[in-house]
């Protein structure tokens, strides 16, 4: 049994070595074209392995940079959004001047966005994605993807606000005012949210219940200023 395992191991090592020896006989361009062919055929697992070989054999090269990008796209197309985001993180770190950066940042936002509704990940993924979307808007205001990213940012904001509002209401009903205040304060920074005014009203109520009249008055002033702004006629 032991000899059989040793034989199998030696066979695998030899096969692996021979495979890489064959790859070394090919140019970067040939390896990349073979990998892209697999990608075009939607054989994404094989394509990812092929792209990885290019990165291993020719690190930091032009084709390695392209391989990293398409490896991320392959993971995204397979639904492996965490791996896709990781590939884009690596690209941004290693190729900080890469020509595909607008698309790389875009794909990273989408990869994180697709993970938001995974319940076990909680709200942190939504907050991270909103941060990345905001970063994208600041970095690439003229990008062809800017409108889509702005729309994603609005949807994420509403997702966060809806969740925080629901939890805040739960704590408020239980009389856990400090916990409720924390949740409603998270919404207070999103003035475009449909929950903004309701959250400010709840912040006033929660602070008043705790005898924090000064803080309650501050939120009343904030709400009044917001209402006056909304009532102002458009120019």
Write the layout of secondary structure elements.
Layout: H1 2-24, H2 28-40, H3 44-57, H4 62-77, H5 81-94, H6 101-113, H7 124-139, H8 146-173, H9 177-188, H10 196-209, H11 213-231
Summarize the structure.
By secondary structure, this protein is mainly α. It is built from 11 helices and no strands. Helix 2 (28-40) packs parallel to helix 4, helix 7 packs antiparallel against helix 8 and helix 9 packs antiparallel against helix 10 (196-209).
Structure in words:
InterPro entries: BamD, BamD-like, TPR-like_helical_dom_sf. Belongs to the BamD family. The protein is an all-alpha fold and 235 residues long. Helices cover 77% and strands 0% of the residues. The protein contains 11 helices and no strands. Helix 6 (101-113) packs antiparallel against helix 7. It is elongated, with a radius of gyration of 26 Å. It starts with a helix and ends with a helix. Residues 7-21 have low confidence and may be disordered.
Oligomeric state as shown: single chain
Number of helices: 11
What structural class results from the helix and strand content?
A: mainly alpha
CA-based gyration radius? 26 Å
Helix content class:
over 70%
- Uncertain segments are 7-21
N→C terminal distance:
85 Å
Shape: elongated
The count of strands amounts to 0
Q: What's the SSE pattern?
A: HHHHHHHHHHH
Indicate the proportion of strand residues.
under 5%
Profile the largest sheet.
none
Mean of residue pLDDT values: 87
């Amino acid at each position: 049994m032991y000899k059989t395992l040793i034989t199998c191991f030696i066979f695998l090592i030899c096969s692996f070595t021979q495979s890489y020896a064959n790859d070394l006989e090919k140019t970067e361009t040939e390896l990349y074209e073979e990998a892209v062919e697999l990608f075009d055929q939607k054989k994404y697992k094989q394509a990812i392995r092929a792209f990885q070989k290019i990165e291993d054999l020719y690190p930091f090269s032009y084709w390695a940079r392209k391989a990293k990008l398409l490896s991320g796209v392959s993971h995204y197309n397979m639904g492996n959004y965490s791996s896709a985001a990781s590939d884009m993180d690596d690209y941004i770190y290693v190729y900080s001047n890469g020509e595909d950066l607008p698309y790389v940042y875009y794909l990273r936002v989408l990869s994180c966005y697709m993970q938001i509704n995974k319940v076990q990940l909680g709200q942190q993924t939504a907050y991270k994605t909103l941060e990345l979307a905001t970063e994208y808007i600041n970095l690439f205001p003229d990008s062809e993807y800017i409108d889509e990213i702005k729309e994603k940012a609005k949807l994420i904001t509403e997702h966060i606000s809806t969740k925080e509002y629901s939890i805040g209401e739960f704590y408020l009903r239980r009389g856990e005012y400090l916990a409720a205040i924390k949740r409603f304060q998270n919404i207070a920074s999103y003035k475009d949210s449909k929950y903004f005014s309701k959250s400010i009203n709840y912040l006033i109520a929660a602070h008043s219940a705790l005898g924090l009249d000064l803080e309650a008055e501050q939120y009343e002033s904030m709400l009044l200023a917001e209402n006056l702004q909304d009532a102002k006629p458009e120019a």
